[in-house]
Design brief:
168 residues, alpha/beta, Maf protein, 7-stranded mixed β-sheet
Length: 168
């Protein structure tokens, strides 16, 4: 089955390709020569995922899926949430976002957080939506070099390593 993953993010593309079983051929926006950024103007993860998948389906008529992921931190009342990718400023500056989060978490007793991902899959024009949640906590110091974004400070529930310390 051929699907387009609506992303320019090579880290995400690699992770998805590793997760899917044989028989899936996953292309990215780069494979379609689609160089524009799709504006994520919705105030929810669900809305942003749908905007992205619908934009590509309407433009190319191909089955595709898009995700939007947010880190929701209890101490910050659910922030950064839908604004996770642009938490510190416009643009996707992972380093600035991580620094801002760490500063806001200094001295926090409640360090519970969760990653929430919403996927919008468009098959033959019909949308299917999925949600995944990983509960965990934010640590005070970065650990690990794998992954991207908030991975160096997020420890999933039941583990002692950050996402950035784990094998993909």
């Amino acid at each position: 089955m051929k699907l387009v993953f609506v992303t320019h993010n090579k880290h995400k593309l690699k992770e998805v390709k590793q997760m899917l079983p044989e028989g899936f051929s996953i292309m990215s926006l780069d494979d379609l020569n689609y160089i524009s950024e799709i504006d994520e103007t919705a105030e929810t993860l669900e809305g942003n995922a749908l905007i992205k998948s619908k934009t590509i389906y309407d433009a190319f008529g191909v089955d595709c899926f898009a995700d939007d992921t947010g880190l929701e931190v209890e101490h910050l009342n659910g922030a950064p949430g839908v604004h996770s990718a642009r938490y510190a400023r416009e643009g996707h500056d992972f380093e600035a976002n991580l620094v801002k989060l760490m500063l806001e978490m200094e001295g926090a007793e409640n360090r519970r957080a969760r990653f929430r991902t919403v996927i919008s899959l468009l098959l033959n024009g019909t949308e299917h939506q999925f949600e995944g949640i990983v509960n965990g906590s934010i640590i005070a110091q970065r650990k690990g070099s794998e992954g991207f974004g908030y991975d160096p400070v997020f420890v999933p529930e039941g583990y002692t390593e950050t996402f950035a310390e784990m094998d993909p």
